[in-house]
Amino acid sequence: LTTIREIYKNREAYLDKEVTVGGWVRSVRDSKTFGFIVLHDGSYFETLQIVYHDEMENFAEISKMNVGAAIIVKGILVATPQAKQPFEIQAAEVTVEGVSAPDYPLQKKRHSMEYLRTISHLRPRTNTFQAVFRVRSLCAYAIHQFFQERDFVYVNTPLITGSDCEGAGEMFQVTTMDLDNIPKTEDGAVDFTQDFFGKKTSLTVSGQLNGETFAQAFRNIYTFGPTFRAENSNTTRHAAEFWMIEPEIAFADLEDDMELAEAMLKYVIRYVMEHAPEEMQFFNSFVDKGLIERLNHVVNSEFGRVTYTEAIELLEKNNDKFDYKVYWGCDLQTEHERYLTEQIFKRPVFVTDYPKEIKAFYMKLNDDNKTVAAMDCLVPGIGEIIGGSQREDDYEKLLGRMKELGLAEEDYGFYLDLRKYGSTHHAGFGLGFERCVMYLTGMGNIRDVIPFPRTVNNCEL
Ligand code: 4AD
Ligand code: MG
User: Fold this and answer.
1) Taking each helix axis from N to C terminus, what angle separates 127-149 and 254-275, rounded to the nearest 10 degrees?
2) Is the distance from CB of 442 to CB of 144 less than 8 angstroms?
């Protein structure tokens, strides 16, 4: 079998020759002596028209196929200069590999995203999800390529962990204990020593802490894997299971971290625009008008920079527009993030140097003793897409911060060791992969950029 992509890309080599393609029927219509099939094979965004004739012994079988049937077609590829499509196949043989029942849910009409979420096993066959998941795949490849070209080592960090990297307590517990008969200690607490790992464990919220150990050996590393958060927030940007890319760089400060983040995002945008032009055109026409122009502008301009303190001053002037009023010390809500990037900067922007109270324990304390060397990258349409920081590299300061926050020292011994044996100044960040795909496609809901979304009250398929 050849593919529709191959035919479109190397049309000269295939014109007037016999080709064989396999795919799924998007539509069939017949008149008495011949008929047309629109075929999609998943290799390319475009479809291919097939013409078939009543000389075929299975003409009737073909004509009564339903949308969604799987077929194999052998025939001659001919140019059709008058038609909308550049060519079609004059079929010599059409083999019906798998019929499709008449109740096939994806009939030729526009379905709502909500409805398509209820059939996540079939929605990859639609134009929208063909485009989304090809872009998602290219985006992953581009990210690996970006880091590999720069000699970063790809590290696989564990999904089951005994520590809470972000300290937000939003973890899914992992246990083999019988929940109806939980072993208890003498004072009535859960006895985790009887659990599989002999201690309390969870699904990871971030690979960062493990990643840092490798950065202190390889200098530049990145992770790319699933992470889990039991956030009870039912928004269009939060999933319980999402993928994160977490580079970690040794001998680097916050400035180096932001340069890396900006270069990475620009690289990925360029890569996807170059390798999925049809898909990007589709998003630009049907999902988010102006997307391509906006992304072109992003790759050709510098990201904005603003400190948290400056951002609060800018936002406070607009407090009348917000549900949550801002003040120095508050955590920025999505409405504030979007206002900054969409109304004030009109491009991606890094917000830096947040108050230590609203950030994680591992961030490096600034000289003011109030803020930490943190950065969030905010983008129009979404808000936060990246969160990162320079890490606290001083043993005593880190230990002090952990004690203040009540972190159990014995769970983080390995992490403290890194500050004991050849500590370097170092930094890193986490890019939310789904948010990145949303940004590149203009899709408005995280549920529609991950194949099988897991969100509050939803774990289908
Ligand atoms: O800002 P976060 O919590 O940062 C960290 O986890 C750090 N350990 C990263 C690091 O420095 N190595 O999360 C990073 C990014 C966010 O900016 C966001 O894009 C994404 O992960 N993210 C989510 N994406 C989807 N659903 C959720 N529930 C998310 N929570 C965070
Ligand atoms: Mg964050």
Assistant:
1) 130
2) no
Question: Quick check: CB of 165 below 6 Å from ligand 1?
Answer: yes
Overall average pLDDT of the 25-37 stretch? 94
Distance 63 CA to ligand 2 centre (A): 55
Task: Please state the rounded mean pLDDT for residues 382-387.
Answer: 97
Q: How far is CA 448 from CA 98, 232, 444, in A?
A: 28, 19, 8
Mutate to test the pocket of ligand 1, among 206, 227, 235 (most ligand atoms within 8 A of CB): 206
**pLDDT for 312-321, tens place per residue?**
999 999 999 9
Residue 304's nearest CA partner among 273, 262, 366 is 262
Atom 5 of ligand 1, nearest CA residue: 430
Question: With a threshold of 0.90, does the pTM exceed it?
Answer: yes
- What distances in angstroms separate CA 184 from CA 46, 181, 187, 191, one per listed residue? 61, 9, 8, 5
Tokens read off for 45: 């965004």
Our CA dihedral for 228, 233, 234, 236, rounded to 10 degrees, sits at: -70
- For the stretch 211-244, pLDDT in tens is 999 999 999 999 999 999 999 888 999 999 999 9
Whether the complex's predicted ipTM is more than 0.90 is answered with yes
Residue nearest to atom 23 of ligand 1 (CA): 432
Q: What pLDDT is attached to residue 326?
A: 97
Nearest to 211 by CA among 202, 201, 199, 219: 219
200 CB within 6 A, ligand 1 = no
229 lines ligand 1 (CB under 6 A): yes
Binned at pLDDT 50, 70 and 90, residue 247 comes out as: very high
